[in-house]
Amino acid sequence: MIALWTLVGFLLGSLPFSVWLGKLVLRTDIRGYGDGNPGGTNVIRAGNRGLGLLVIILDMLKGAVPVALAHYLFKVDGWPLAPVMLAPILGHAFSPFLSFRGGKALASTFGAWTALTVPFGPFVMGGSVFVFHKLLNVSAWAVIAALLALLGFLMIAGLTLPLLATWAGTVAILAWTHRADLRQRPALRPKTSEQSGR
Q: Residue 172: which H helix or E strand, with range?
């Protein structure tokens, strides 16, 4: 059962909706935009905000669905749940459909952890990413800061060793997919002239 759900999670996570829908709808390879990664943000950069939001939702669902089904329907928990949680994140980051060169896996990470931490976890993660993105000049460091906020929430909610290991695995994957940006030193965003005048 664990191997089955891990495989299902990896395969779902590896589905490159951004590339497929970009070619089908926009007639372009969205990896030619922005940071070159397959993801909803680059679909938006390619000129279609609605399609980009759809891709982000699909990427979140491919993380949430296998975790939710395994955990709530088939009662997979504890250590057996760890590979199921990490599988869709790894699938997105190392998609076999893209020669094992995937995206940054932020949306699939949000989906997987949302499925496990509803109703409060998604607000912690989403709010943290928003706040730290506004505060820090490097978005990758905002992601790491949001993961630390998630760890704080897990500690309050009842952190177990399997959850800690899963969180650490998530941090390792996202640190790898964001490695180029993490080489930049984080700093607070400078105030705009409008903010300075207030």
A: helix 161-177
Q: What is the pTM of this model?
A: 0.93
Which amino acid, one-letter code, is at 66? P
Alpha-carbon span 148 to 72, nearest angstrom: 26
Angle between helices 81-93 and 49-68 (to 10 degrees): 150
User: What's the Cα-to-Cα distance from 81 to each of 45, 94, 110, rounded to whole Å?
Assistant: 35, 20, 16
Neighbours of 71 (CB within 10 A): 18
Q: Could you give the C-alpha distances from 50 to 15, 22, 122, in angstroms and in order?
A: 19, 12, 22
Ranges of each domain in the chain: 2-189
| Separation of alpha carbons 159 and 193, rounded Å | 43
For the chain, helix, strand, coil in percent to 5 are 70, 0, 25
Of 111, 71, 101, 118, residue with least CA distance to 176: 101
Tokens representing 157 are: 């909610």
* pLDDT tens-place string over residues 31-72: 999 889 999 999 999 989 999 999 999 999 999 999 999 999
Residue 84: both structure tokens together: 């199921």
Sign of CA dihedral 33, 54, 121, 89: negative
